[in-house]
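User: My collaborator sent over this chain with a note saying "see what the structure looks like." That's all I know about it. Can you take a look?
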Amino acid sequence: MRGVFLLLLSVLLVVTGACSRESPAASASKQNRVVVLSPALAVIVRDLGYADTVVARHAYDDVLPKELPAVGDQAGIDYEALLRVKPTHVLVQWGSRELPERLTQLATQNQWQITNLNPLQIEDIFLAVHRIDATLRKGKEPSLRCSELLNQIAEFRSAPKAAAWGPVLLLASTNPPAALGPGSCHDELLRAVGGQPAISEGKPWIELSPEDLVRLQPRAILLIRPRSARGVTDADVPTTDPWEPLAKLQLQALQTGRFAVIDDPEGLLPSTSMIRVGEAMRKHLEAWRK
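Assistant: Without extra context I'll predict from the sequence alone. Here is the result:
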């Protein structure tokens, strides 16, 4: 898989200079009517510049315009609503499950193009960006924006220049404690920017007990705590200290001041938002190394 990633990157870097300088949406067919049934894929579509081609969204999507009709989620699809928006493309994140038979039947009958992507790790995100761009541009050379995003993502596939610093614990929640572990794109980002994860074995999402935190004794803690992207104001920021649940545990990271919150509304979505999350991780690690 890594070989595929490197091959794609080398080809895309060659053609970057020849990429169209039109906006991606303008250069994509004006006939495209895209349904995005995944919040993570919606981030990629928006960042590529194709939001104007979207006609319907996932029920829990916070990225695309809220005026767009919601036509389903992971629990099911509203096929009547889907038919009403008359899509040409349907982007889904269905994982390892079989696509719903009704969806594939309707796609055949109405000549919809279904693209099933499952971005969980950095390489998956890279390939999803490339595939969405190629699909909506109908096989044309990559857009300039696509090449820019791929170059940014590729930076997090390189080996870190400095020796690993840590251990650093990545948390998605402090009450109850939940960690982002091996197999997550967050774990990959931390390694890429020179961090040593506090958890080296386990699943991408790991629930922890207070005893687990004391046993781990991380040198630093990063909390990825996204808020809703819609209408966030200062009044929406939680007044409760997110570190309060850990205050009594006598953790080295809290005692030495090596803890921080990455408060990105898309910080847990495995998508092009990981570019920002990775840069935030790099910034905090550089400050803690000093």
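A starting point for your reply to your collaborator: Residues 42 and 240 are 30 Å apart (CA to CA).
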